[in-house]
Amino acid sequence: QVQLVESGGGLVQPGGSLRLSCACAASGSIGRIAAMGWYRQAPGKQRELVATISSGGSTNYADSVKGRFTISRDNAKNSVYLQMNSLKPEDTAVYYCNMKFGSNYWGQGTQVTVSS
Predict the structure, then answer these.
(1) CB 99 within 8 A of CB 80
(2) What is the pLDDT of residue 81?
(3) Opening angle at CA 82, ends 78 and 88, nearest 5
(4) Alpha-carbon distance 5 to 25, whole Å?
């Protein structure tokens, strides 16, 4: 049994910051997690990639968040984080964490709302 537990979403004013966290909880050993990432889905839109980080620490960002968001991971804690700065109203979405190890796992989603 594998579960990804997200936290850190909320309401923030434009220009503000939020930090999302996602931890993997498993009933047994899961070995090394390959890729971790964050995706988001705004109302009426398809889910899109925000950022990914490989097991070696290589990162990839959507053009819309480059320079504002930073993804990081803690392998000892099987966790991935997303530091979001200079938030814009268009960043409003449900954010999902993703981890790939054997299968593809998703978190339940956390709402991020950027509004004044």
Answers:
(1) yes
(2) 98
(3) 165
(4) 7
